[in-house]
Write a structure and sequence with these properties.
Length: 531
């Protein structure tokens, strides 16, 4: 009995010391050697306590499918030209491609589709004289997969951007079919963060149509296969951003999908402004070498999200796969552009459905009120337990204090995020802890009324109450796990606190208080119990 008690007391004290060590950074500012050798992270506060941004984004899957059809159409056209399949007509619709060829080339067309475009299937077809009309449509399963993959890719891309932006403990989760919830606690510059997260970052290199620019920019018709975009510039002296129209070939020579790196550069031959240095992978470097070699003396525009940032003249073939993007950037703009290019482009544009900025003042007020409520609740519980159960109530209060310290220590050690619902979870945990002790003490009273000794009454009380306490905690724990799995945001914060609290509560309410009772029984051998 004595040996078992010593082991239990040692375990309780070790856990207490470890919990206090993990809680220290949240209470005092550690410096010097203390900071070097002890945990230094404070308890992370959620959006509702720390302030920050709450964004609900919606992925424009319709626009994504339109872009996909455009790319598929161009690839299909290039493949037919490459394989010498002469087409008399080629058109695209929302989810299909329509082709008109000579009937004698039907077999070559079907072989091409089967080999390189397996996500297409032949639909309606008909022969008209020597011509053959056929419509290829996307497989329905493929369409569903494309949309699902787009949301997953958008999630990963936004998460990479936020990580590089330096926000700690962000919440980035999918909601519904095509919505993404983003919570950024403690964000200092909401507008910049929104610009960074929402930028599609479709990087393209396109040829400038100098021959027709002057006509198209003065109200003339835009030639087929061309598009009129705006070119961004910044006045070095005033800092004012200006835009001018520029005519480009629609067909992109190279896209940002083949980028391997993007970083900030400073200055150049005639400028000291920030720029973005980009580097392509091996395939991108090969294509870049080819297009610069074929277009020496021509202008190639660098286009990001349909805005031209620069359109330099290609003076010579550029090998090595390196290029620069300059456009009168500020340092923050260059940093953010490098981030989105490194993280990758979003598969489709996103629109902001909900944008809520929570100020730190509101968060501090929530913390103050939450702490006040917890302290007042604890004070009432402590007074009641002492008044109603006397010395045994003091033991229950010690177990309750251990519960709180262990809970905060676990939060720090697991780097969990404390939210306002989390504080509610702490209050519920306190209530469950008190309830457990009330069950034990009432059982002990029953055993004493039956005339049993103090030791036998304590043992009987804990043994008989254990099953009820275990059942109530397990059912609550299962509920909390379900809330954590299927809940989002505040619900998860509440569930995490409840899960940790239930596990710790089982330990302190039963194991911890029992150790205190055993120590009193061995040390003082009382004939009566103050309960």
């Amino acid at each position: 009995m004595l040996k078992s008690l010593k082991l239990r007391v040692i375990l309780i004290l070790v856990l207490l010391v470890v919990s206090v060590i993990f809680c220290l950074p949240s209470v005092i500012d550690l410096k010097g050697a203390w900071k070097k050798y002890l945990p230094s992270e404070k308890i992370h506060l959620g959006l509702d306590l720390k302030g920050g941004m709450h964004l609900l984004l919606e992925l424009d899957t319709q626009k994504m499918m339109q872009n996909l059809v455009d790319r598929k159409f161009n690839n299909f056209k290039d493949a037919m030209i490459r394989d010498n399949i002469r087409f008399l007509g080629l058109d695209k619709k929302e989810n299909s491609l329509s082709v008109v060829i000579r009937s004698d080339q039907k077999e070559k067309l079907y072989n091409l589709v089967g080999k390189e475009f397996s996500d297409l299937k032949a639909g309606v077809s008909r022969a008209e004289g020597d011509n053959f009309h056929v419509e290829f449509v996307w497989l329905e399963k493929e369409m569903v997969n494309i949309k699902q993959n787009a949301v997953h890719q958008a999630l990963e891309t936004i998460r990479n951007r936020v990580d590089q932006f330096g926000v700690s403990e962000p919440v980035i989760v999918q909601q519904g079919e095509n919505q993404i919830l983003v919570q950024l606690p403690g964000i200092q510059d909401p507008e910049r963060a929104l610009e960074l997260i929402g930028k599609t970052a479709q990087l393209e290199f396109k040829l400038v149509d100098d021959d027709n620019t002057s006509k198209s920019t003065t109200g003339g018709a835009i030639p087929e296969g061309c598009e009129l975009l705006t070119m961004r510039g910044r006045n070095r002296e005033t800092g004012i951003v200006t835009t001018t129209p520029i005519l480009l070939k629609k067909q992109a020579l190279l896209t940002g999908e083949l980028l391997s790196n993007a970083k900030i550069g400073i200055g150049g031959e005639f400028s000291t402004e920030p720029r973005v240095d980009i580097e392509f992978n091996s395939e991108g470097a090969r294509i870049f070498d080819k297009i610069t070699g074929e277009n020496v003396g021509k202008k190639i525009a660098i286009v990001l999200d349909n805005t031209v940032y620069s359109a330099p003249v290609v003076k010579e073939r550029i090998s090595g796969g390196k290029a620069q993007i300059s456009g009168g950037f500020s340092m923050d703009e260059a940093k953010d552009l490098a981030i989105v290019l490194r993280a990758g482009a979003l598969p489709a544009p996103v629109k902001v459905v909900q944008n809520i900025t929570i100020g730190p003042t509101l968060g501090q007020d929530s913390i103050r009120k939450g702490v006040q409520a917890t302290v007042v609740g604890c004070a009432f519980v402590i007074i009641f337990m002492i008044f109603y159960y006397r010395l045994s109530g003091v033991i229950a209060n010690v177990a309750l204090l251990l519960n709180l310290i262990y809970l905060l220590g676990a939060f720090s050690a697991l780097k969990a995020t404390m939210t306002l619902p989390g504080i509610a979870g702490i209050a519920l945990t306190i209530g469950m802890g008190v309830d457990s002790n009330v069950l034990i003490f009432e059982r002990i009273r029953e055993e004493l009324r039956l005339g049993k000794t103090v030791r036998a009454a304590v043992e009987g009380g804990y043994t008989k109450a254990w099953v009820t306490i275990f059942d109530s905690h397990i059912t609550t724990l299962i509920t909390a796990c379900v809330l954590f799995i299927f809940g989002t945001g505040p619900i998860k914060g509440f569930a995490i606190t409840l899960i940790i609290g239930m596990i710790i509560n089982l330990f302190t309410a039963v194991f911890g208080s029992k150790a205190i009772f055993d120590w009193i029984l061995i040390r003082f051998k009382p004939r009566k119990l103050s309960i």
